[in-house]
Amino acid sequence: MMTSTLLGAIVVTALGTWAMRALPLLWMQRRRDSSADPAGATPPIWLVRLGPLLIAGLLGTSLVPASLDAAHLVPTALGLAATLMCWAWVRGLGWPIMAGVAAFALTHVLMMG
Question: What is the distance of C-alpha 4 from the center of its chain?
Fold first, then answer.
């Protein structure tokens, strides 16, 4: 059963996620439309660096296991290894993330099973 507190947390998270993606896009569209430059306005340096910083923050929090025992360290290590190996193969973001999540989930289920 979903409590009102959980529902509120989900709504706040969804709005925050939308804001991080939509507001820079809308802001740059407005700058581009008002710019005299035919190629459009170039984004400020803080906006260029914001995306990689957010991804690095998510990576950092994802690599911290729930506890420092084998049941949590092994799935984290195997998920990270699968992500890095897949990235080295495809040099993209989507497939490596899927491979890492799948490796983590499979290892976690097998170790907890």
Answer: 26
